[in-house]
Automatic annotation (TrEMBL):
Name the record gives this protein: AB hydrolase-1 domain-containing protein
Segments forming a coiled coil: none
Species of origin: Fusarium duplospermum
PANTHER family the UniProt entry points to: AB HYDROLASE-1 DOMAIN-CONTAINING PROTEIN (PTHR45763:SF46), HYDROLASE, ALPHA/BETA FOLD FAMILY PROTEIN, EXPRESSED-RELATED (PTHR45763)
GO molecular function annotations of the record: oxidoreductase activity
Pfam families (UniProt xref): Abhydrolase_1, Ferric_reduct
GO cellular component terms, semicolon-separated: membrane
Transmembrane regions listed in the UniProt entry: 23-42, 108-129, 149-167
InterPro entries: AB_hydrolase_1, AB_hydrolase_fold, Fe3_Rdtase_TM_dom
Start and end residues of each Ferric oxidoreductase domain: 79-181
Keywords, ordered alphabetically: Ion transport, Membrane, Transmembrane, Transmembrane helix, Transport
Protein's membrane topology: Multi-pass membrane protein
Length: 500
């Protein structure tokens, strides 16, 4: 048994289906279905008003009515995955059921629809034949099928049921994947990629969100906030900040670091090379004052700017779940992250090859985009529930943004991913305690973060006593970035004070 990227072997699929949560689900799901079917059957049989019909049609009307009641229930149930508020409410209360797997749940309902549609349709075909044979009504079965309102509407409903089932088939989902995603996530619109030629000839890609979206940075004198995405990611990640920035009249300019998306790779680069790129784009568009948001792996670049750029231009820095030097200690960090930080500096080429083979090859597969999403879904199963719910429920547009941005970041290959982890795991070229004017810094960090444990943020706060640390109780790694309104309020206040 072999598997391709993003697919499971037969044995793995079998183990998933025989897990305790899945077995409990099937017991309750199918038990409820057959109980509903039995109730519909009993209701038809026991109703004295229907005695003549029961006498004439007997078992065929009983099974058709039982199946009809089940189908009425299933056509409502199939919409449950779209009811995010309800699912978000019940998921923490019923953790032993696989309610996170909405695609799988949708497929189980589709199987039930297929089964009971067959039962319901078969029962009615027998009913129509019996009516013709007994001449309860002077009609032929074919007339009942295609000339009577009941038969016509019944066939329309049959078509609807079959469409509900067939659209869960993997080939249909693949063909309509982009349409389905854009319909279910209509608020996500990719920013227009823009470019800047840097002094050394490299090209820097970026996108503009918030006020003056897709215009050039600094247009109409909107205050500018530079956004540094995580790893691996591109400017599309900043979509999560768009609405909050728009409401506050702020322009968020998200920058693609060298090697990501269309930005020219920069072999041998260091964290302290980045501030000059930021200053170049600020100078090019005559942005005299700006602030910075650094998210996750973008945090060290934000700190490098805080160390290198003058206070009269960089008015404030916000860190959201930022990474910190490995010297701060990795206790409590997810094992995979520890492994990447420890090994990347020594074998970056091997890591680049592994990422290209397992991730980039899937990201480049334009014919089967759902495979990359499924891979992301699998990865999310190993993170804390607080983060997993945000991804599955697409809270704040997080799933849309992170899928689009990470896919674009990985398409060129795994070289930049490996380069960035090698930088994170090595000496940074500067020390946190060297940073002056740390009163410009505010740190948002979740207490349940296993990608970057809160202890690392607390260590940074101790080394920078003038900085502010905001502990987010119960939040994981993703939670801080969803506080866009709070973060931008702080940043806007600092930008306004600097202009007074």
């Amino acid at each position: 048994m072999s598997s391709t990227a993003g697919q499971l072997t037969t044995l793995q699929l079998l183990r998933k289906q025989l897990s305790l949560p899945k077995l409990l689900f099937h017991l309750l799901f199918w038990g409820a279905h057959w109980a509903t079917f039995a109730y519909g059957w009993w209701k038809q049989v026991s109703d004295p008003r229907l005695a003549p019909l029961n006498t004439t049609l007997s078992w065929s009307i009983w099974i058709s009515r039982g199946a009809d009641l089940v189908l009425s229930w299933d056509t409502t149930l199939i919409l449950l995955p779209a009811c995010r508020t309800i699912v978000r409410f019940i998921r923490p209360k019923i953790k032993w059921l696989p309610l996170d797997e909405n695609v799988w749940f949708h497929r189980q309902v589709a199987y039930a629809l297929l089964l009971f549609t067959i039962v319901h349709t078969a029962g009615h075909y027998v009913n129509f034949y019996t009516i013709e044979r007994t001449q309860v009504r002077p009609l032929k079965a074919i007339d009942i099928h295609y000339k009577e309102p009941g038969g016509i509407t019944g066939h329309i409903m049959l078509l609807c049921m079959l469409l509900m089932y067939t659209t869960t088939h993997v080939r249909i989902r693949r063909q309509s994947f982009e349409t389905f995603c854009s319909t279910m996530s209509s608020s996500f619109v990719r920013a227009k990629p823009q470019t800047l030629a840097l002094p050394d000839g490299r090209i820097l890609f970026f996108g503009v969100f918030g006020a003056g979206r897709d215009t050039q940075p600094g247009a109409e004198n909107h205050p500018v906030v530079f956004y540094f995405p995580g790893i691996p990611s591109t400017h599309d990640e900043a979509h999560m900040m768009h609405n909050a920035a728009l409401e506050r009249g702020l322009q968020v300019v998200a920058l693609d670091r060298p090697g990501y998306a269309g930005s020219t790779p920069q072999p041998g680069r260091q964290f302290l090379d980045w501030p000059s790129d930021v200053q170049a784009i600020a100078d090019r568009f005559s942005i005299t004052l700006f602030a910075i948001i650094g998210v996750s792996g973008g945090g060290p670049y934000a700190l490098a700017c805080l160390r290198s750029l003058p206070k009269d231009r960089l008015t404030g820095v916000a860190l959201c779940g930022s990474v910190y030097p490995v010297s701060f200690g990795l206790a409590g960090m997810k094992f995979l992250n520890q492994l990447l930080l420890r090994t990347a500096p020594w074998v970056p080429s091997l890591l680049a090859w592994i990422v290209d083979y397992t991730q980039s090859s899937v990201a480049r597969d334009e014919e089967h985009p759902e495979v990359y999403v499924n891979k992301m879904m699998e990865l999310m199963k190993s993170i804390p529930a607080a983060d997993r719910v945000i991804f599955y429920d697409n809270i704040g547009g997080y799933r849309d943004a992170i899928v689009a941005s990470s896919r674009e970041a990985l398409k060129p290959g795994g070289q930049t991913f490996a380069q960035e982890y090698a930088l994170l795991g090595s000496d940074w070229g500067y020390k946190i305690e060297e940073i002056q004017d740390a009163d410009r810094l505010v740190i948002w960090h979740g207490t349940e973060d296993i990608h970057v444990p809160i202890a690392m943020a607390e260590k940074a706060s101790q080394l920078l006593p003038n900085a502010e640390l905001r502990r987010l109780e119960g939040d994981g790694h993703v939670g801080p970035i969803l506080r866009g309104a709070e973060i931008l309020d702080v940043i806007k206040g600092r930008l306004e004070r600097s202009t007074q």
